[in-house]
DNA sequence: CTTGCCCCTGACGTCAACGTCAGGTTTTAA
DNA sequence: TTAAAACCTGACGTTGACGTCAGGGGCAAG
């Protein structure tokens, strides 16, 4: 399939697909005249790329990890890299969950202003100068 | 306290604090000579702002929501806004969890390439799956 | 007084993931 | 055959949350 159809199928722009290729995330065969031609599986790959982007990975990181995902082989370094990204995502999930709970508390307190609910931002930070770290 | 100390305490840059003020997220008293002066509570507020940023909220959204957090009152619109952000964060958490599970599967499969683990990116796509014969 | 550190206000620079436009070629529909 | 649609390669524009630099002021210590 050509780039327009892939864009339509995967829900990203043509420009984005060309950008992915530029970043080494997506390969394409070229026709005689230079037009890109993709196999069916490209749609899944684009979905995967989008998923990883939305998880906060950069193009460079994705480019480093995709080959080992493709081949399903990993060096110790790539395994460490994968595990590190997994842990980063875990931490991000935890932080988001705390934020969501805080938002819920705010919603509850603003719904009924008379209550003595805990204030948002007052989690349990006994010491000072602590970054957003593991609870 | 002055801006340098607040920056050191909250772990963000002086530039960021001035930016927050510019965006209407953080108020400061001014000394005679124009220097910013913050109360102790400002550190907590900066933490909150950082938390909301890291949850993917924009300056504008934060600026719209902070007053109702402060006053703990909400109009129907702001409640809806808060709930919408909460739901967005929930969805983001779910997507991240799926990505993390995918990453775990990749890690497992690359750790032991001989196993027949599911491939990443194949979540629930019941459409046709024409695999080239990968043993 | 002057040295050094902190502070001020602009204002331009950065970076990533694209959007968009220009100018030209290829493919497809009429 | 021809016109529209799709594609190509540059290359510049956009956005958000700052970084960084320039140029100048304020204040306690030596």
List key phrases describing it.
5 helices, mainly alpha, two-stranded antiparallel sheet, Multidrug-efflux Transporter Regulator, Chain: A, Domain 2, homodimer, DNA-binding, 135 residues, disordered C terminus, 2 domains
What is the overall silhouette of chain A?
Answer: flat
* CATH architecture label of the largest domain in chain A: Orthogonal Bundle
Assign the CATH topology of the largest domain in chain A: Multidrug-efflux Transporter Regulator, Chain: A, Domain 2
The profile of the biggest β sheet of chain A is:
2 strands, antiparallel
Taking pLDDT < 50 over at least 5 consecutive residues as the criterion, the unreliable ranges of chain A are 114-118, 123-135
For the record, give the distance between the C-alpha atoms at the N and C termini of chain A, rounded to a whole number: 49 Å
CATH level 1 name of the largest domain in chain A: Mainly Alpha
> Numbering strands along the chain, what is their spatial order in the largest sheet of chain A?
1-2
Estimated helix fraction of chain A: 55-70%
Structural class of chain A: mainly alpha
Pfam family, one (chains A, B): MerR_1
InterPro entries (chains A, B): DNA-bd_dom_put_sf, MerR-type_HTH_dom, MerR_fam
Domain HTH merR-type (chains A, B): 1-68
Keywords (chains A, B): DNA-binding
């Amino acid at each position: 399939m050509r780039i327009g159809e892939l864009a339509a199928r995967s829900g990203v722009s043509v420009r984005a697909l060309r950008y992915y290729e530029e970043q080494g995330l997506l390969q394409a065969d070229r026709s005689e005249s230079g037009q890109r031609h993709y196999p069916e599986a490209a749609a899944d790959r684009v979905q995967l790329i989008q998923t990883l982007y939305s998880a906060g990975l950069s193009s460079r990181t994705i480019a480093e990890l995709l080959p080992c995902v493709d081949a399903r082989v990993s060096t110790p370094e790539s395994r460490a890299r994968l595990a590190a990204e997994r842990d980063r995502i875990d931490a991000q999930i935890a932080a988001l969950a705390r934020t969501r709970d805080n938002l819920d508390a705010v919603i509850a307190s603003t719904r009924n202003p008379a209550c003595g609910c805990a204030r948002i931002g007052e989690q349990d930070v006994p010491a000072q100068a602590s970054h957003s770290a593991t609870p």
